[in-house]
Amino acid sequence: MHTRLKTTYAEFPPLFWIIVGTLFIDSIGSTLLFPFFALYITGKFGVGMTEAGVLLGMSSLFGLVGSVIGGALTDKFGRRRLILFGLAFSALSSLLFGLASDVKMLYFLVVFVGLLSRVSAPAHDAMLADILPEAKRQEAFGITRVVFNYAWILGTALGGLIAARSFLALFIADAVLSLTVAVILYRFLPETKSASPMEARQSESFLGTVAGYRIVLRDLAYMGFTFAGMIVLIVYQQQYGALAVYLRDVHNISSKSYGLMLSITGLEVVLFQIWISRIIRKYHPFLMMTLGALFFMAGFTLIGFVRGFEFFLLAVVIATVGEMIFFPTNKALAVNFAPAEMRGRYMAIYDLGWTLPATFGPAAAGLILDRYNPNLLWVLGGILCAVSAVCFYALHLWLGRQRRFIPAPMEQEVSAGA
């Protein structure tokens, strides 16, 4: 085990591990808050879940706009400044939310914070792509998922203890952690964006950089890839909202049992993600996306047909296998689509694939749970995952022979044969 860890450490540059370490610290801060934010809104301001949902939805919607702006800023001004700005603003916004005294102030904050909180998101992904060769990106994104799940386990446990005493302390803790990460990265993080020959010849205006989104939107293969991923994400995100309500209201399974279920799946990722990432990097990525979507289909469909905690746990464990295959491959593919000088904008569109389902998915799920047979939600989810699997297989047939999408071991064989 120790030898394997040393080998993995040696395979990546030191800057990658600095980023991973700071990601762990910052993720603890975000997971201190995330599970308890709705409780904070409803408890402190006396509003119902509907209004809390509107506030959270507004934050996601304005975050969508912020991500688009951030992608252009990343390509125009580089990664480092955007990341440092994002951390400093995260600290400030945490304090503002913690000190808010009126629900009307929250509406202003979700617009303001939503716009700026996602500005740095494309810069993080673009920086990892800058410092890593194609052959290592899939495994690297798997490592970042393991680190986030470690932070999730620790952050949610600490958050529960702190929230029992003071919600304001949660916001202060998140702010302190964000500023700590900002100081570390300011000291050790270089700019990784290098000028391409095209950029060296001409300096593009910011409006010209924004207009460059037309190139991304005309990349039909990439937009099809983004759409297929978005379909799965609409279903996947129900695991963190609708599933808790469904288990409580339909099957009388407590929130404590639901929390245990999430802890087990988090541990599943921690134990197996790196191992799975090493295996799947040898195979065609679009086929792995297809396989991941099929695991999602099996897991989420099963939820609609079983009873009892053990069988629901089995269903989410199956879906988590899909998660471990799907998400690292998904992000690595998104990076491989992007020309180096447009990585920020491509990753901003990738980020939209997460933001749009988070904005509209919960409302659609709530409509089904409230007005129709609740089991229908999971049957429809399974159908959507099947559609996504077909889309990814079609992309494999269309793009699978292009060099940028051939896994490294196979590419070496092709080169040797030539």
Commentary on this structure:
This protein has 418 residues and is mostly helical. The protein folds into 2 domains: 14-189 and 207-211, Growth Hormone, Chain: A (Up-down Bundle); 218-410, Up-down Bundle (Growth Hormone, Chain: A). Helices cover 83% and strands 0% of the residues. α8 packs antiparallel against α15 (255-280). It starts with a helix and ends with a helix.
What's the short version?
With 418 residues, the protein is an all-alpha fold.
User: Can you tell me the number of structural domains?
Assistant: 2
Report low-confidence residues grouped into runs of 5 or more: 411-418
Main beta sheet, described?
none
Percentage of β-strand residues: under 5%
CATH class of the largest domain: Mainly Alpha
What is the rounded Rg?
A: 21 Å
From the N-terminal CA to the C-terminal CA, the straight-line distance is: 38 Å
SSE order, as H and E? HHHHHHHHHHHHHHHHHHHH
> Which fold name is given in CATH as the topology of the largest domain?
Growth Hormone, Chain: A
The backbone outline, from C-alpha atoms, is globular
DSSP summary: helix tally: 20
Which structural class fits the helix and strand makeup? mainly alpha
Task: Please tally the β strands and state the result.
Answer: 0
* Residues in helix, %: over 70%
